[in-house]
Amino acid sequence: MDFNQIIGHEKVIEILKKSIKTNKISHAYLFQGEEGIGKKKLSYAFSKALLCLSEGEKPCGDCPSCKRFESGNNPDFFHIEPEKNLIKIEHINKIQKEMSTAPLNSNKKVMLIEDAHLMNKESTNKLLKTLEEPPSFAHIILTSSQAYKLLPTILSRVQTINFFPVPKEKIKNLLIEHYGKDEKQAKFITEFTKGAIGKSINLAKSDLLFQRREEVLKLLNDLIKGDKTKVFNSMDFFNNNEKDIHEILDIMIYYFRDLLLYKKLPNSPLIINQDKISLLNEHSFMAFNKINDIILNIMETKDIIRKNVNFQLSLEAMLLNI
């Protein structure tokens, strides 16, 4: 992974490249931004560049360090990921141990902690001590989509790099040119992910999102027509896709948002379900207030599910109000 393989984030890349060129590299960074926005790819490219042995452009891709990085076998790079949505103190102990010894292959060591907001209290306190007195050769990169959960004492010891959505036109063109999506599919994915390029690419690699959308819209059509028995018949679908429930609820939110738009501006380019205009027209008899209430109800259900309240009961109550 090199900087030139990253789509978007030009300002971030410029900042990181300049820090390497001028040798003004922080001992710790926080890459913060929405999930799937590109933090992981760029953290890999930056780590590779930090460890590169070339005297010229970094990463060079040819030195022993770069080659070992690409093979996933660089002894000076350590990647910590959450296990069961938790980063435990054992993970941070591992980093401390590695930081106590000199680099083997490069003149630096890089520690990447992904989703740092998932550290528990013990691991957070342990990391704080690590950040207070890091060895000169060590660099720590934290990534997070929920940086507000990190302690202020952590935030005060890192250089924060903010990641913003990639321009939607760039993502749309990428999906059309490299992932075989047509114009309407690419537009839907791009709008659905709000410019999160990693998430866009993952969704474009299969037709699962569109298959789920068809299932969801069929259910909504039945409910709007008054067939409430479908609420209970649909529970297998929701239970089988529980881990992706927020994506499914977002499909509903975007559809009803489009319905509001369609009622006001039927030819609006802002409608993302462009291939569902006939269905939107069929449902356009619904009152504005009713559609607004449905959207608010779905958003409230998302919050309830995040709080681990009864999953099936929450969904049934929401669907019965459509």
UniProtKB/TrEMBL annotation:
<dbReference type="GO" id="GO:0006261">
    <property type="term" value="P:DNA-templated DNA replication"/>
</dbReference>
<dbReference type="GO" id="GO:0003887">
    <property type="term" value="F:DNA-directed DNA polymerase activity"/>
</dbReference>
<dbReference type="InterPro" id="IPR004622">
    <property type="entry name" value="DNA_pol_HolB"/>
</dbReference>
<dbReference type="GO" id="GO:0009360">
    <property type="term" value="C:DNA polymerase III complex"/>
</dbReference>
<keyword id="KW-0808">Transferase</keyword>
<dbReference type="InterPro" id="IPR050238">
    <property type="entry name" value="DNA_Rep/Repair_Clamp_Loader"/>
</dbReference>
<keyword id="KW-0239">DNA-directed DNA polymerase</keyword>
<dbReference type="InterPro" id="IPR027417">
    <property type="entry name" value="P-loop_NTPase"/>
</dbReference>
<dbReference type="GO" id="GO:0008408">
    <property type="term" value="F:3'-5' exonuclease activity"/>
</dbReference>
<feature type="domain" description="DNA polymerase III delta subunit C-terminal">
    <location>
        <begin position="210"/>
        <end position="322"/>
    </location>
</feature>
<keyword id="KW-0548">Nucleotidyltransferase</keyword>
<dbReference type="GO" id="GO:0003677">
    <property type="term" value="F:DNA binding"/>
</dbReference>
<dbReference type="Pfam" id="PF09115">
    <property type="entry name" value="DNApol3-delta_C"/>
</dbReference>
<dbReference type="InterPro" id="IPR015199">
    <property type="entry name" value="DNA_pol_III_delta_C"/>
</dbReference>
<keyword id="KW-0235">DNA replication</keyword>
<protein>
    <recommendedName>
        <fullName>DNA polymerase III subunit delta'</fullName>
        <ecNumber>2.7.7.7</ecNumber>
    </recommendedName>
</protein>
<dbReference type="Pfam" id="PF13177">
    <property type="entry name" value="DNA_pol3_delta2"/>
</dbReference>
<dbReference type="InterPro" id="IPR008921">
    <property type="entry name" value="DNA_pol3_clamp-load_cplx_C"/>
</dbReference>
